[in-house]
Amino acid sequence: xxxxxxxxxxxxxxxxxxxxxxxxxxxxxxxxxxxxxxxxxxxxxxxxxxxxxxxxxxxxxxxxxxxxxxxxxxxxxxxxxxxxxxxxxxxxxxxxxxxxxxxxxxxxxxxxxxxxxxxxxxxxxxxxxxxxxxxxxxxxxxxxxxxxxxxxxxxxxxxxxxxxxxxxxxxxxxxxxxxxxxxxxxxxxxxxxxxxxxxxxxxxxxxxxxxxxxxxxxxxxxxxxxx
Length: 227
Description:
Strand content: 35-45%
Distance between the termini: 11 Å
CATH topology: Jelly Rolls
Strand order of the largest sheet: 1-4-7-14-9-12
Low-confidence stretches: 5-9, 12-24, 203-209
Shape: globular
Helix content: 10-25%
CATH architecture: Sandwich
Order of helices and strands: HEEEEEEEEEEEEEEH
Number of helices: 2
Largest sheet: 6 strands, antiparallel
Mean pLDDT: 86
Structural class: alpha+beta
CATH superfamily: Galactose-binding domain-like
CATH class: Mainly Beta
């Protein structure tokens, strides 16, 4: 019993150390996920057109707009989710569904998590009429069908940000693409895009510890039967 117990404890410690290392060693694959580079003057916006590049993001369609977090319009603040800037994927006055940004990531075969924030401008302020629709953005991974993410929440006189997260598996390098799926509203914000290795959820820890607990119980019962 003593030798088996030592082996069990050793396995538990090893598995826990492996899980902890995987969580601590998460690698960020997205470049310029907050659209902070090359930078936008405080209180202003910068348009990027088809074929342009926003610090690693390739622009397609008509145009997209980087917005300073201190920019305001007729009493409506366009605060970023975090940092100094965010992206309005609708462009200047919502120029259509072809507007998109994409980036190729140096991932290898495996399982990953993509997280990002979608911003919805409140229909308040002097230009409330053009911000009355929920904000929607499509996400495509490796050229697959776009999955739509919608934020219908409102924060009066500001941009409300909602966080989304998706797990995906890739055979190697990954291309992520976001496109405008908001029909007529003049703002669909995108900010804080992140792709990291998928790590075990807290439930995995519980299953691991529970599984070793059952193993230990079985060992004790076997020992008792032999006594």
